[in-house]
Design a protein that fits this description.
The chain is of the alpha+beta class. Helices cover 24% and strands 26% of the residues. It has a domain of 117 residues: Ribbon (Umud Fragment, subunit A). It is built from four helices and twelve strands. Strands 1, 2, 3, 4, 9, 10, 11 and 12 form an eight-stranded antiparallel β-sheet that branches. 19% of the residues are buried. The C terminus is likely disordered. It comes from Cladophialophora carrionii CBS 160.54. Its EC number is 3.4.21.-. It holds the Pfam family Peptidase_S26.
């Protein structure tokens, strides 16, 4: 930043020539544009590429682009069903895109029979001590404070909380608002994608209250 300020000062101090004035204008405009984009990308909205089968069919397995809301960074106002982008706790320097399944304090079921493998690779820790042919019982997990439980929509090809456990909210970089091809075809993901399960008595109450 100091180097840019020094360059701007030198250009302004240059002789009053058309070329020097033009260069000063270009430099000033570029500095302002970069600063504005940095401010927007870090605090409001940004976009980035996404590739892989873990969120199919919600997000295409081929290369696509996500528009992210930075206002949800660090888990602010995140809800169950939101699709988030976070720093991968498994691969340094890489990001992951998954759906929030559980919030702090929620209970989630990790059932080996429903998701025994990910890309034909067994999930670590789920089969240790289990005998061949013996079905391992589901495990109830409570999401700790300051964390979320995430899963890919395509469970058979997703490395998610079943692998690395709950994700710290500090790793969340944003919430996915739109997914598209980078040009004119975009799908909104802003509305809730999941609905809470209802108890039998709640369903009965709704049926009784319906007119007719």
């Amino acid at each position: 930043m100091l180097a840019l300020q020094h360059l701007w000062a030198r250009l302004r101090a240059a002789p009053s020539q058309p070329f020097a004035r033009a260069m000063a204008t270009v430099a000033g405009t570029s500095i302002a544009a970069v600063s504005l984009w940095t401010l927007i990308a870090h605090n409001f909205v940004t976009y980035g590429p996404s590739e892989g089968p873990s969120m199919y069919p919600t997000i295409p397995s081929h290369r696509s682009y996500n528009i992210l809301s930075r206002r949800h960074k660090h888990g602010r106002n995140i809800q169950v069903g939101d699709i988030i982008v976070y720093q991968s706790p498994m691969f340094q320097g890489r990001r992951a895109c998954k759906r929030v399944i559980g919030m702090p304090g929620d209970y989630v079921v990790r059932d080996p029979s429903l998701s025994p493998t990910v890309g034909d690779a067994r999930i670590p820790g789920l089969y240790e001590g289990a005998s061949d042919g013996v079905r391992e019982e589901p495990v109830m997990v409570q999401v700790p404070e300051g964390h979320v439980w995430v899963a890919g929509d395509n469970l058979s090809y997703s490395r998610d909380s079943r692998f690395h456990g709950p994700v710290p909210m500090a790793l969340i970089q944003g919430k996915t608002l739109y997914v598209g091809d980078g040009w004119f075809n975009w799908t909104s993901l802003r509305k809730p994608q999941l609905q809470p399960a209802m108890l039998a008595d709640e369903k009965m109450g709704m049926e009784v209250s319906l007119p007719g």
